[in-house]
Amino acid sequence: VMxxxxxxxxxxxxxxxxxxxxxxxxxxEGGIRGRAFEVVVEDSASNNAGAVxxxxxxxxxxxxxxxxxxxxxxxxxxxxxxxxxxxxxxITGATNEYITRQGSRWIFRNRTDDGxxxxxxxxxxxxxxxxxxxxxxxxxxxxxxxxxxxxxRALAELYSIEAVAVETYNTGDRDYTGQLLNxxxxxxxxxxxxxxxxxxxxxxxxxxxxLGMPYRWLGSPSSGTSxxxxxxxxxxxxxxxxxxxxxxxxxxxxxAYRAAFRRQFGMDPDLAATQIYDALLLFAEAxxxxxRGPEELRRELxxxxxxxxxxxxxxxxxxxxxxxxAIVRIQNGRQQPIGVVDETSVKREPLxxxxxxxxxxxxxxxxxxxLMLEGVALGSIYALVAxxxxxxxxxxxxxxxxxxxxxxxxxxxxxxxxPRWGTWPAFALTLAAMAAxxxxxxxxxxxxxxxxxxxxxxxxxxxxxxxxxxxxNLARLxxxxxxxxxxxxxxxxxxxxxxxxxxxxxxxxxxxTSLALAALYLFFQRTMLGVRLRAVxxxxxxAGLMGIPVRRM
Length: 553
Hints:
Helix content: 40-55%
Radius of gyration: 28 Å
Number of helices: 19
Structural class: alpha/beta
Number of strands: 14
Strand order of the largest sheet: 5-4-6-7-8-11-12
Strand content: 5-15%
Distance between the termini: 55 Å
C-alpha cells in the first residue's frame, strides 16, 4: 500500500521507485527459488479510509504472500484490525510505538520505533549537544503525538527533567510564527520536532530561520528528506536530524544501493524509498529460506538477520526490526553524518538539581507585536490576490473563479525561470507571460459567451470553474507534484528592530502591496481611464452612449 495520490504523493513516488529497484535486484539474484518476485501496488490516497480500502483490494486477490502497510502511523493504526483479519505477515515503516504493542502476530516494523528513537534523540541532545532547556514541536496526528509522549517520557526517565515548552500544529497549517515564538519565550536552548509531512517541515524551517530563532533544532526523519530540504533550502542548514536512513551513511549495502538508485532515477534515495526497498529484501530473504505459507513466513521473519540499505535488521519478539538512529547535520542542503546512536547508549543518568538554567525573560508585548507584523505580511499576500478580483469586477462586473490557479501558474513560471535568469528578470518575464496568457484566457472563457455574460454573469462563473480545473491539471502535467520555490527578490535575511525580527521578504511584500493599493486607488478615482472602466462596469449601454469604447474597456 503506497501513497500515490493525495497530500503525500511525493513520498509515494519515492516509495514506488524503491520497490521497483528492489524487485529488479531480487530477480537479478535468481528470484525466490527460481520464481520471479512480484509486487502489486494499491493506492492509499494518503488517508486512513484509503489505506483500509487498498488492503481490502489486495486481500480480494487471494494470491499474495505478504503485505507492506503504509509508512504513516495514523493509516496503520486504522488498518491494524483489517491486517489481523487478512492474516499475512505485514511490514510497515510507521514508527508509533503502540503499533507493535496491540498483540498482533502479523505486524513487523523495519524502522526504529518512536519509543526508542525518542530516547536516542534525547541522549544525543543532552549528552552530546549539552541541551538542558528542551522544547517539543509536534504534529497533532498519531505520529507527532506519539513522538511528543515518547520524548517527554525519555526526558523524565533518563535525566529527571521536563520539556520546558510543548507546541502543536495541524497538518497543512501555513503559519507557525506563534509556536516558534512561544518556544523562544520559554527559553529553549534546543527544540525536538516530531513532524509528519515534508511540506509542513519545509515551511516550518523557513519560518524558523526567517525569525532568527536562537535555539538549535533536532528533527525527526522528515526534517532530512529530499522533499523537505527542497522546500527549506538554506533555511535547513545547521539543523540536526535523527533518522533511520541517510544516503551518506556507509552501511554494508548502502553505497551500492545509492549508486544504483542515482543511476536509475537521477537522484539520491530517501527514507520513503529505502524503507520499501529493505522491506522487500527482508521478505525475499525469509522466502528464500524455505518459508511456505503465512505462518512459516512469520516465523522466518523473526529469525531473519539482514544488512539492508539503511543498516542492520533483526526483529525482537514484538516485531521491531531496527534499534538505532543515525544523527546527521544538514549543510548546503545535504546530510552530513555525525554518528550512530543505538540502544546500548540508553542509560538512566539523572541531572543534578540546578542543572536546568532559569528561563530568560522575554517581553510578551514583543511577541504580540511580532504576531501582528506577521499577520500584516500574510494579509498582504491575500490582498495582492484579491486585487485581481477587484480589477475584473471594477472593469467588467464579473468574478473569475480561476484567479487562484492563475496565481499558481505565475508562481511556477517564476520558480522555473529564476534559476536561469535571476529573480528580477524572471519576475519581469513572468509578468509579460501572464499578460499574454490573460489575452488567451479571455478569448477562451469570456469572448464566446460575451453576450450571455452581459445578461447573466453565472455563465462566466461556469467557464472560469472549468478553466480552474484545466489549469490545475495542466500544472500537474508540466511541473509534476513537486513544490516549486523561487528565492525572494527582497533577500532571505531578517532585520532586528525594537525587539522584532522583520524578514526582508515580508517587508518587501508589505511595501509592494501598499504601492499597488495606492496606485490602483489613484488610477480608478483620479484618471479618466479609471473612471471609464468603472462606468462600463456599472452600465454598458449608457457608457456606450457616452462615447466610451465598451469592448476595449
